[in-house]
């Protein structure tokens, strides 16, 4: 048996092991769901609630595996098809990059959620003040109604409940990404309490300004989505070319992975493609950061 065949066999065994592990995890989750369903699903013994929980648990099973761990799986598949260990190394190298992208996406969603929560808090607080409640009581009621600021809510509520420095607590909470609008709320609070100005009117103007800024960012993001889509499409063209070459019988994987010229083209093409995607994303982030 040749070295390439041994390497291909080893990659196939590793790929099969990964598939068996994923199936075992799915079967374990399904068995736990069936046991819960057999027990009634809830303490009250509602079978319909148990079935709903089971369906929800089964839908969430694929999401428990982080997206970046599919890169080594794809590398194993390509290693089997191309009889080379290089795709496995590339798949392993892609794990930290994909994890970084996933973490960045989660941070962006959290930031947007906090910004929406600040706008909702300003609107709810203005309504409570107009209803005749004192600022401290109004802030307590508005903060309980508005979610998305769980990290800062305890400090602000404690300051409002026990007579602490509410503007300082709001300014401290505004350090979180997406909660910068709380600085404006702190300024409105300080002016209203110290100088007797109308708190509700200031909150309305602040909410209007924050809402306009959010809409401007959303509009810019929609305009830049075309650039992102173009970058993704261009990045996927080499994969499409490999697929077309394989269907035509040209065996491009063998050329890329087992010949000096193919390895040089793979290295140069990968570097240029990575540089191009990084440059496009840098331009997009610069445009978004200018708002």
TrEMBL record:
The keyword Membrane applies. InterPro entries: T2SS_GspF_dom. It holds the Pfam family T2SSF. It is a multi-pass membrane protein. Signal peptide: none annotated. The chain crosses the membrane at residues 7-24, 69-98, 229-249, 261-281. Residues 123-244 form the Type II secretion system protein GspF domain. Keywords: Cell membrane, Coiled coil, Membrane, Transmembrane, Transmembrane helix. The keyword Transcription regulation does not apply. It is found in: Cell membrane. Residues 203-230 form a coiled coil. This is Type II secretion system F family protein. It comes from Streptomyces levis. The lineage of its organism: Bacteria, Bacillati, Actinomycetota, Actinomycetes, Kitasatosporales.
